[in-house]
């Protein structure tokens, strides 16, 4: 029981990181990254190949880089790699102001990356993926019991989640964060901030993918293995469900949504009647998540914890006593969070 | 006759117009004047049904059209030429007119002929893509399209914007012809002096509210009206 | 040299499959102004119907196609009525509609797994006879695929060009607001568009099954991004553009497939898509270059 609790809270913490990142893209600025899970995968794979070194830990597997940099650098590299790919893709596709182009491009990227990674053994060991990934503090805690190590990892995951949560909140309150929401609400009003809306979208894409990569890195370290079955499209939708159920645009909502959706999925499948064949459990879950998403979008689009709306419309924003007054453009801070 | 009472409407629940009243009698040209952003185009979108009413009502004669979708308002007697995008650019000129007469069947060709009597310039370009027309011709095509179903009221959003004075006068000649046929014409005009010279009546809209209304000849020369665009 | 010519032939077959899907997707995208991420699942359903009717029940391939068109056409209209219309009435953000279509894709794909299982169903080829056209060898099935594509797209072109309904669809692609304000019952036209788009998915699904010999729950989805690539290259809402782009994509994919690892074929198509987005985001055939 205790072990189950530790495990589920750890997974919740990692999914909170995913949800926070997706919330910045989808919730703050309104760009739709349908291939979000591919960025999680990039983070996971890069974390693995920058920490595995040549040891292979008893597995025979092929992979690139063979670095062995000290923790937590591999996780950071995972995040940066995901952010770099996200930014590259966004630079290409976001010149179009249409949300669908990015959605199409991210979906296509995820599908193409998936085929390439699964069919090319020399990158990340093909479809099987990588195993034996070193866990943080493995050497120091070699003698620890499963529960104790689990607890240590839980603390690590929660610390990561907490740091990223605080960073997100800072971002939301910063001029860049307000600009992001202005872009989501109204292109025309956003123009009055004196910056190009593209900047907000690029920043959201980069930061959100960074979160995805960090989460992916932690996930592969926790499971010590990661293969292509771990990044089926369904996984993206668990994260979307978390954000939408929790409350699009609300950071606390992302936390609550991640917890509810993960616990919900775990618990609902535990209490399924035994007569249901096990191969139907996965698809049934997929149907359920899809229906849940549509029902929430239709009947409670604001989610369980609605975002506190700021007034961004019309001339109101220009009145001098308005606390949401757009800040004058600053040249340097556009890309920093 | 078009009668709007207590019209309140706007975008995403935020009202732009508050309690606006407007009446357009048959056969009369009525101009709406007001500074940029006053809500003139918003009023037209609300009258035609592209924006939902948040309060008030719209009638054509005795018929309440407040809850109708746009295409039913058109069939109830409204014709509309928007400020931007007056034509279907990937359709030919003739096809544009066919779209205006979507509910017509046998009488379509006759109706196109009748409408073109008002706009002879278009006759030579019938098979061309509408996107090849000049700005002024596009306005004419939009008006011709809106006349296809023999409307009782026409809504023209800045029909002379961007046109040379000569072409603007030509557009107003068409407008007066339309009104002489018994159709009420509601237009938006940028140029106050010009509009007051041309129209029968005028409304002034500022900040989403009616301020003045009267015969155009009476409003002419009043500093609070003609000064609208100076400040 | 022979390999090159032969792979151009296969390219035309692949192009026909992509073209049907892309044209059906492009029509609905152009008119309703949101892209349907569940379109791959529409094709998958069509493929299953074709399999049950033609392979299992041994009916003629055309009976299978008509049945598939009927079922997927109805599915599309039903989804429009039950799911999209209520959303659209609330004037939602584009992003919300996109997520709804992705969620539908997820639901349908998993439903197929539950109802049809994940087994590969072998689709029996309608004709294995070999024909030579110039230096290229085709099977009867492959020629059938090309003929079906030409017929279906030709028929749609006639509808769009010469009928009132078709002209209204083009008018809505230009501006749905102006179409409504001109007196066109846009709800009716939208319903017709979903019906036709769904019927194209039915044809596309069967043709896809004929081309790859089998049906499984992710069949249509794995082609979706090729349809997207053709739609974007061709310019949204321009069926002819989608057709020409499909031919380009089909030939590039099959010709490169003759020389490089098959796994990279999709990557190449993606590269083309990215290049188009970079250089001509409004499509290859637009007169304007990119907007900044
Ligand atoms: N699509 C829109 N979404 C949100 N606000 C809008 C939109 N169109 C216009 N507005 C706002 O409504 C107000 C009135 O605009 P409009 O009716 O176009 O003015 P005009 O009198 O110049 O035609 C303006 O403040 C404008 O910013
Ligand atoms: Mg205006």
UniProtKB/TrEMBL annotation, chain A:
Keywords: Cell membrane, Membrane, Transmembrane, Transmembrane helix. Its main location: membrane. InterPro entries: ABC_transp_permease, LivM-like. The keyword Cell membrane applies. Residues 316-337 are annotated as: Disordered. The chain crosses the membrane at residues 6-24, 31-53, 73-94, 101-118, 148-168, 202-220. It is found in: Cell membrane. One of its GO terms (molecular function) is branched-chain amino acid transmembrane transporter activity. The keyword Transmembrane applies. It is a multi-pass membrane protein. GO terms for cellular component: plasma membrane. It comes from the Bacteria. This is Branched-chain amino acid ABC transporter permease. It comes from Candidatus Amunia macphersoniae.
Automatic annotation (TrEMBL), chain B:
Residues 215-225 have a biased composition (Basic and acidic residues). Residues 2-230 form the ABC transporter domain. Keywords: Amino-acid transport, ATP-binding, Nucleotide-binding, Transport. Gene3D superfamilies: P-loop containing nucleotide triphosphate hydrolases (3.40.50.300). GO terms for biological process: L-amino acid transport. GO terms for molecular function: ATP binding; ATP hydrolysis activity; branched-chain amino acid transmembrane transporter activity. This is ABC transporter ATP-binding protein. It comes from Candidatus Amunia macphersoniae. The lineage of its organism: Bacteria, Bacillati, Candidatus Dormiibacterota, Candidatus Dormibacteria, Candidatus Aeolococcales.
Automatic annotation (TrEMBL), chain C:
GO terms for biological process: D-alanine transmembrane transport; L-alanine transport; L-isoleucine import across plasma membrane. The chain crosses the membrane at residues 12-39, 59-82, 94-116, 136-160, 192-213, 219-236, 268-285. It is found in: Cell membrane. The keyword Transmembrane helix applies. Keywords: Amino-acid transport, Cell inner membrane, Cell membrane, Membrane, Transmembrane, Transmembrane helix, Transport. It holds the Pfam family BPD_transp_2. One of its GO terms (molecular function) is L-leucine transmembrane transporter activity. One of its GO terms (cellular component) is plasma membrane. The keyword Aminoacyl-tRNA synthetase does not apply. Signal peptide: none annotated. InterPro entries: ABC_transp_permease, BCAA_transport_permease. It is a multi-pass membrane protein. Belongs to the binding-protein-dependent transport system permease family. LivHM subfamily. This is Branched-chain amino acid ABC transporter permease.
């Amino acid at each position: 029981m205790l072990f189950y609790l530790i495990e589920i809270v750890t997974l919740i913490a990692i999914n909170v990181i995913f949800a926070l990142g997706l919330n910045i893209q989808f919730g703050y600025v309104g760009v739709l990254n349908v291939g979000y899970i591919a960025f999680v995968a990039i983070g996971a794979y890069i974390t693995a190949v920058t920490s595995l070194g040549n040891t292979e830990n008893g597995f025979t597997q092929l992979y690139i880089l063979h670095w062995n940099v000290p923790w937590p650098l591999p996780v950071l590299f995972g995040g940066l790699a995901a952010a770099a790919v996200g930014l590259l893709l966004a630079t290409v596709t976001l010149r179009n102001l249409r949300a669908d182009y990015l959605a199409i491009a991210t979906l296509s990227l995820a599908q193409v990356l998936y085929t390439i990674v699964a069919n090319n053994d020399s990158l990340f060991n093909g479809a099987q993926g990588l195993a034996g990934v070193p866990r943080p503090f493995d050497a120091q805690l070699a003698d620890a019991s499963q529960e104790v190590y689990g607890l240590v990892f839980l603390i690590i995951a929660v610390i990561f989640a907490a740091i990223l949560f605080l960073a997100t909140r800072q971002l939301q309150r910063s001029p860049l964060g307000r600009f992001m929401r202005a872009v989501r609400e109204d292109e025309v009003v956003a123009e009055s901030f004196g910056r190009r809306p593209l900047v907000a979208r690029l920043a959201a894409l980069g930061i959100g993918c960074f979160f995805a990569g960090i989460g992916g890195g932690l996930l592969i370290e926790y499971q010590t293995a990661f293969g292509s079955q771990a990044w089926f499209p369904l996984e993206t939708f668990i994260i979307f469900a978390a954000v939408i159920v929790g409350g699009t645009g609300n950071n606390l909502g992302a936390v609550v949504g991640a917890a509810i959706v993960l616990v919900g999925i775990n618990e609902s499948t535990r209490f399924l009647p035994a007569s249901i064949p096990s191969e139907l459990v996965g698809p049934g879950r997929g149907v359920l998540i899809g229906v849940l998403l549509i029902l929430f979008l239709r009947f409670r689009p604001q989610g369980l914890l609605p975002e506190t709306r700021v007034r961004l419309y019309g001339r109101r924003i220009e009145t001098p006593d308005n606390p949401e007054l757009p800040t004058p453009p600053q040249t340097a801070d556009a890309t920093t969070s | 006759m078009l009668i709007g009472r207590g019209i309140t409407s706007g975008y995403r629940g935020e009202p732009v117009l508050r309690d606006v009243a407007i009446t357009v009698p048959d056969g009369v040209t009525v101009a709406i004047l007001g500074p940029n952003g006053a809500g003139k185009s918003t009023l037209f979108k609300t009258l035609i049904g592209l924006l939902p009413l948040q309060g008030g009502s719209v009638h054509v004669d005795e018929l309440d059209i407040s809850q109708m979708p746009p295409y039913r308002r058109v069939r109830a007697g409204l014709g509309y030429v928007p400020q931007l995008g007056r034509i279907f650019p990937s359709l030919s000129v003739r096809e544009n007119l066919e779209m205006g007469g979507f509910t017509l069947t046998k009488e379509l060709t006759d109706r196109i002929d009748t409408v073109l009597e008002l706009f002879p310039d278009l006759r030579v370009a019938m098979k061309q893509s509408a996107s090849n027309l000049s700005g002024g011709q596009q306005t004419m095509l939009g008006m011709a399209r809106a006349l296809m179903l023999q409307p009782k009221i026409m809504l023209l959003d800045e029909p002379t914007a961007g046109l040379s004075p000569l072409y603007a006068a030509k557009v107003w000649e068409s407008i007066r012809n339309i009104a002489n046929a018994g159709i009420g014409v509601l237009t938006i005009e940028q140029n106050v002096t010009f509009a007051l010279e041309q129209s029968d009546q005028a409304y002034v809209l500022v900040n989403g509210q009616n301020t003045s209304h009267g015969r155009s000849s009476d409003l002419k020369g009043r500093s609070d009206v003609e000064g609208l665009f100076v400040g | 040299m022979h390999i090159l010519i032969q792979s151009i032939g296969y390219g035309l077959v692949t192009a026909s499959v992509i073209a049907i899907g892309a044209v059906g997707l492009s029509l609905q995208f152009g008119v309703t102004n949101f892209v349907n991420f569940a379109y791959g699942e529409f094709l998958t359903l069509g493929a299953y119907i074709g399999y049950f009717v033609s392979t299992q029940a041994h009916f003629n391939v055309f009976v299978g196609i008509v049945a598939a068109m009927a079922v997927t056409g109805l599915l599309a209209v039903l989804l429009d009525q039950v799911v999209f219309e209520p959303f659209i009435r609330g004037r939602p953000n584009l992003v919300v509609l996109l997520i709804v279509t992705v969620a539908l894709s997820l639901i349908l794909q998993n439903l197929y797994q539950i109802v049809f299982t994940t087994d590969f169903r072998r689709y029996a080829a309608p004709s294995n006879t070999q024909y030579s056209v110039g230096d290229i060898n085709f099977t009867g099935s492959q020629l059938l695929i090309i003929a079906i594509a030409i017929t279906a797209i030709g028929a749609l072109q006639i509808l769009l060009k010469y009928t009132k309904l078709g002209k209204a669809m083009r008018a809505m692609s230009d501006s749905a607001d102006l179409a409504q304000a001109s007196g066109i019952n846009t709800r009716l036209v939208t319903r017709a568009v979903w019906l036709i788009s769904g019927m194209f998915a039915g044809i596309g699904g069967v043709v896809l099954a004929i081309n790859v010999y089998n049906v499984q729950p992710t069949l249509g989805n794995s082609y979706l991004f090729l349809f997207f690539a053709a739609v974007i290259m061709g310019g949204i809402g321009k069926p002819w553009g989608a057709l020409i782009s499909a031919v380009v994509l089909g030939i590039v994919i099959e010709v490169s497939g003759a020389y490089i690892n098959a796994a990279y074929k999709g990557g190449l198509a993606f590269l083309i898509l990215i290049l188009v987005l970079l250089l001509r985001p409004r499509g290859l055939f637009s007169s304007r270059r990119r907007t900044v």
